[in-house]
């Protein structure tokens, strides 16, 4: 065995203090990265002039705060689980699509999917369409709004005998605004059990 011409370096052997120092440095980077976040991405043009303040207000997507969803929750409140915004009908004003369910302490409460809009004068947000009724006993996953379409995967049940914990049917669905209404399409053969 040939001896090294360079004396043995202390930093070539890891010791517990090296791991502690590395873990501390990584924790610092993670903490700093969570505190320093970039602004949210937007496709909007640069800020309008001060004289067009009402146009900017009209372009803001409807908020889900304070909206009364057509969902019966009894003593618990309705919870917005997911939401996305975009111009679904091409009128230049964004809509908000919300996945909402009751805040049940146990089990898997079914979801409702609602489209919110506001009047051109910037009035209060209101529900204008229901894409999924809670009575259908569906859970919504893979929810997104792309290219003026709402897409989701719907988890459901093949019969009433299937327990609520364990949906056994998975169906992809897409809704598009067409002719004054949201039309749902499902790829052929997309249901699975």
Summarize the structure.
This protein is α+β, with helices and mostly antiparallel strands. It has 2 helices and 8 strands; from the N terminus they run ααββββββββ.
What does this structure look like?
This protein is an alpha+beta fold and 193 residues long. Helices cover 14% and strands 32% of the residues. The chain contains 2 helices and 8 strands, in the order H-H-E-E-E-E-E-E-E-E. The strands form 2 sheets. It has a 4-stranded antiparallel β-sheet, with no helix packed on it. Strand 7 (169-178) and strand 8 (181-185) form a beta hairpin. It is extended and about 70 Å long.
Spans of at least 5 consecutive residues whose pLDDT stays below 50 are: 6-11, 37-58
Strand content: 25-35%
Spatial sequence of strands, sheet with the most strands: 1-2-3-4
Distance between the termini: 64 Å
Major beta sheet summary: 4 strands, antiparallel
| Number of helices, counting only DSSP H or I runs of 4 residues or more | 2
Average pLDDT for all residues: 78
Summary tags:
193 residues, alpha+beta, 2 helices, 32% strand
Q: What is the topology?
A:
Elements: H1 16-35, H2 53-59, E1 78-86, E2 95-102, E3 112-117, E4 126-132, E5 139-146, E6 149-156, E7 169-178, E8 181-185
Antiparallel strand pairs: 1-2, 2-3, 3-4, 5-6, 6-7, 7-8
